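Ticket #4471: structure output looks truncated?

Reporter: J.K.
Steps to reproduce: submitted the chain below (183 residues) through the standard prediction queue, then opened the result file.
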Amino acid sequence: MGNYYYFVAQLPAIVFARDSAVKPPISTEYFADLCHRFLSGNELECAEKLSLEAPKESSSTGSAFLDKWYAWDRDLRLALVQFRAAKMKKEIASNAGASVTQDIQQIARTACSYDSPLEAEMYLNAERLKKLDDIAPLDIFCLDAVYAYGLKLKMAERMHKFDESEGMQSYRIIYDQILGESK
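Returned output as attached by the reporter:
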């Protein structure tokens, strides 16, 4: 516990603003460096593999927090696929998503209802942050709190990269490429 206490005490707070990009207080590289100083073995391996995108196949990480996060993220992504496929009138495997809960389906339904991809992503980010807060451990000086911080840091970095004008420019490039290939 002493190592986690000293480790967590070095981590600056991440404050998320509702309508603006959050500048992460530290970089993921600095966080990784701290992990290498204070963690070892499976703990370090889990910290190095932290991801906002759950592995496709479910497997135990050794952390109840990470297992919950990855299961929720997998279900959310599956629900998003289902709603997007339905919008496009495409068929997907009938047993896919059998375990997806109503609350996750509602999140996916709401995200798919936005006209703007940026607004949908901002909504999904808010829901992801809410879920991280819901499942984060109450003991802020435990290993799972370190993992939760790492995921929030990755989320802050991702959100900081969102820029509407750059997004539109990228969209136009991709759109023009698609039109060029279909001619």
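Triage note (M.O.): checked the attachment and the full token line is present. Helices lie at 2-9, 28-38, 41-48, 64-87, 102-113, 117-135, 143-160, 164-182.
Status: closed, working as intended.
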